[in-house]
Amino acid sequence: MLGNPYDRDCPTRQLLDRIGDQWTVLIVGALVDGPLRFTEIGKRVEGISQKVLTQTLRSLVRDGILIRTAYPVIPPKVEYELTQLGRNLAEPLELLDRWARRNMDQVTAARAAYDAENAATAS
Which of 67, 72, 47 is nearest to 57 (CA)? Predict the structure, then answer.
């Protein structure tokens, strides 16, 4: 189903919103090397609250990007891992990660120049 992501009601736009979310990008990246438990994901993705992690994981499972496996043991053990769809998504996200790392110095310089110019203008 192809749609127009510029239409606010388009399902494609909703999916782009999900995969463009900072937490989705980081969670998918954390799971590239294999399955992790909830607490392990939380440790790798610093700054995410338990509530947001729970909500994001649930959404990613619903979208077919992750699979949640609950093991019948005491204490309960649950792991999350990328599905094939999730591994396909990880590829372009890894490219974005590399782009960000490669260009961060330029972005930092542009921000500093912008802030300096606007600080002078505001005075």
Answer: 67
